[in-house]
């Protein structure tokens, strides 16, 4: 699919296909219906899921009003049916209800590292994961269980060197049953799937 992007959103990366494909696989196997995407950006993840999982309901949220407008534009251009909606929200702030799947490719680059980036077109907001790069993983792991249906899953994209740190957050939370990691096309750890209780 061809996604429209501008300075409000990141350009979708190939590695994110690994996240999308795993969520599609799980939903088809387990019959998951209700999906929440955090940090939706251009809508590439949510829209791809909506396209390949036609019997699901998807809510995409982003703190950026500009990103939400881009996601809506892409959904209108790329989808033939209305099983997806987008709202502005700072993570879970404006989210109600429970979901079978919570998916996210949040900002995960350390603030200091971004200072060395040449960001001519893409927003720093969509990359900056705080001082340790883990700010949004902490929010997701510490809050998502409240919005998960029983035995629901969380699927997140991670930086190539963040697996151990994110796994530590999962274990320390004590909120989840199990998790596993998946490598990307380059052989780096890229996706973690977490199972709720």
Describe the overall structure:
It is a single chain. This protein has about 200 residues and is an alpha/beta fold. Helix content is about 30%, strand content about 25%. The chain has helices at about 15-30, 45-50, 65-80, 110-115, 135-145, 165-175; strands at about 35-40, 55-60, 85-90, 100-105, 150-155, 175-185, 190-195. A seven-stranded mixed beta sheet has the order 3-2-1-4-5-7-6, sandwiched between helices. A hairpin with a 5-residue loop joins strand 6 (about 175-185) and strand 7 (about 190-195). Helix 1 packs parallel to helix 2 (about 45-50) and helix 5 (about 135-145) runs parallel beside helix 6 (about 165-175). The radius of gyration is 16 Å and the shape is globular. The mean pLDDT is about 90.
Name some characteristics of this structure.
alpha/beta; 7-stranded mixed beta sheet; globular; 6 helices; 197 residues; single chain
Spans of at least 5 consecutive residues with low confidence: none
Hey, roughly how much beta strand do the residues contain? 15-25%
Q: Helix- and strand-based class?
A: alpha/beta
- Give the termini separation: 35 Å
Layout of SSEs?
Layout: H1 16-30, E1 34-38, H2 44-52, E2 57-62, H3 65-78, E3 84-88, E4 99-104, H4 111-114, H5 135-143, E5 148-157, H6 163-173, E6 176-183, E7 189-196
Parallel strand pairs: 1-2, 1-4, 2-3, 4-5
Antiparallel strand pairs: 5-7, 6-7
């Amino acid at each position: 699919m061809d996604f429209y992007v501008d300075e409000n959103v990141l350009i979708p990366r190939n590695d994110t296909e690994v996240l999308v494909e795993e969520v599609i696989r799980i939903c088809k196997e387990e019959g998951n219906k209700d999906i929440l995407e955090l940090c939706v950006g251009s809508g590439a993840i949510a829209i791809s899921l909506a396209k390949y999982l036609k019997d699901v309901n998807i809510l995409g949220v982003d703190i950026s009003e500009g990103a939400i407008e881009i996601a809506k534009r892409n959904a209108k251009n790329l989808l033939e049916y209305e099983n997806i909606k987008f709202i502005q929200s700072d993570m879970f702030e404006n989210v109600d209800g429970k979901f079978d799947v919570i998916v996210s490719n949040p900002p995960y680059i350390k603030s200091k590292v971004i200072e060395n980036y040449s960001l001519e077109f893409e927003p720093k907001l969509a990359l900056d994961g705080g001082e340790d790069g883990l700010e949004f993983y902490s929010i997701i792991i510490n809050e998502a269980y409240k919005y998960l249906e029983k035995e629901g899953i969380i699927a997140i994209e991670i930086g190539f060197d963040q697996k151990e740190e994110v796994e530590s957050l999962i274990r320390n939370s004590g909120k989840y049953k199990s998790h596993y990691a998946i490598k990307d096309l380059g052989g780096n750890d890229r996706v973690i799937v977490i199972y709720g209780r």
